[in-house]
Amino acid sequence: MNFNKEQHLRANIEAIKLCFRLEKENRNPTAEETKALKQFSGFGALKCILNPVENLSDIAQWSNSEIGLFPAVMELHDVLKTNSKTEQQYKLYTNSLKNSILSAFYTPPEIVNVLSEALKISKLTYPVFLTHQPD
Fold first, then answer.
1. Under 8 Å between Cβ of 80 and 94
2. Alpha-carbon torsion 86, 13, 39, 25, what sign?
């Protein structure tokens, strides 16, 4: 269950590209496309998207451990720029991604499934919290 930054970054980029394509084509995703969209894992562990990528010389400012992600981050920004109608919209997209770094973290499906099953077994549901009366 290792977190592979490049794999998740690539899956996120593909999901974002697909979202833009679906929006342009004004349609819902196919079953196959839905699988691809489910691969989106957020940018919580991908702080590299904060690094500068305006041109190739920006790589000098990157840490050695993330240099391998430089091309993918450049591609991410290119996808966002290409699909933005204005510079302001591009900035909104990038700010949204940057803000998610502190609040969005990938949780493997295995963990989500185990927690979900534990809640089902304990019969603990959301309404229980709403109806609980303090002593």
1. yes
2. positive
CB atoms within 10 A of CB 76: 25
Around Cβ 66, how many Cβ atoms within 10 Å?
16
DSSP letters spanning 25-71: HT----HHHHHHHTT---STT-GGGGS--SSGGGGGGS-GGGGGGHH
**Which residue, 92, 93, 53, is CA-closest to 69?**
53
CA 100, CA 84: separation in Å to the nearest integer?
19
Q: Does position 113 have pLDDT exceeding 70, yes or no?
A: yes
Residue 133 above 70 pLDDT?
Answer: no
* Of the candidates 51, 54, 41, 52, the residue with the CA atom closest to the CA atom of residue 15: 41
Q: Cα 71 vs. chain centroid, distance in angstroms?
A: 17
Average pLDDT over residues 125-132: 50
